[in-house]
Design the sequence.
């Protein structure tokens, strides 16, 4: 059975460090899924919010999504797992990132596993993951991975002599936490309850002649 991983990236530039981080998280997740020997196919779809900016703004005003936004929303709400990455603006997630999740029904992501990540110019903004992103997805009742990944400009530098790059370590750990949701057997649907019509229940309580 094919599992669907949707990667949402809110980077504005091209190239974008936000997209780069998203790609590295995706690659690490693919590696971890392969390491588990999973036989299921993994389908990955990347949603670039930059390309949906106009339709997101129009939807905020009209309440109706355009065709590209509708497809992105359907992919996101139908995913088996999400990787969500935003740049940090003014100490929080970007307005484009928040607006996309604002146009999604608040119950549509209930139970969806989410790996959260962010990029910024300085390590001082790393707490955006805990004071902004994690509460957002908790409100949406998603299942947020314990490890969140933040990449500052300095994290893209050279690898230390011991080869243990902190960013690479966090990426691997986060991907490892997300992988079980993409490799575990799909839960079987609960058997349908057999309901006794109310009239029959009353009849059973009636005195027997």
Sequence:
């Amino acid at each position: 059975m094919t599992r669907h991983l949707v990667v949402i990236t809110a980077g504005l530039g091209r190239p974008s460090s936000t997209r780069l981080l998203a790609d590295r998280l995706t690659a690490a997740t693919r590696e971890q899924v392969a390491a588990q020997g999973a036989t299921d196919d993994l389908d990955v779809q990347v949603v670039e919010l930059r390309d949906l900016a106009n339709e997101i703004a129009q939807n905020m005003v009209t309440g109706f999504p355009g065709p590209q936004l509708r497809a992105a929303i359907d992919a996101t709400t139908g995913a088996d797992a999400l990787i969500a990455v935003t740049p940090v603006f003014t100490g929080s997630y970007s307005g484009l990132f928040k607006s996309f999740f604002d146009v999604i029904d608040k119950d549509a992501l209930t139970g969806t596993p989410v790996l959260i990540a962010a990029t910024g110019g300085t390590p001082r903004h790393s707490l955006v993951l805990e004071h902004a992103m994690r509460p957002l997805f908790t409100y949406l009742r998603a299942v947020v991975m314990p490890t969140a990944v933040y990449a500052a400009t300095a994290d893209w530098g050279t690898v230390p002599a011991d080869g243990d790059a902190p960013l690479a370590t966090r990426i691997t750990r986060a991907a490892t936490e997300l992988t079980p949701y993409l490799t575990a057997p799909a839960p079987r649907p609960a058997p349908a309850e057999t309901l006794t019509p109310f009239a029959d229940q009353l009849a059973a309580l009636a005195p027997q002649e």
Q: What stands out?
A: The radius of gyration is 21 Å. Helices lie at 17-35, 53-62, 67-77, 95-102, 128-139, 166-178, 180-183, 198-205.
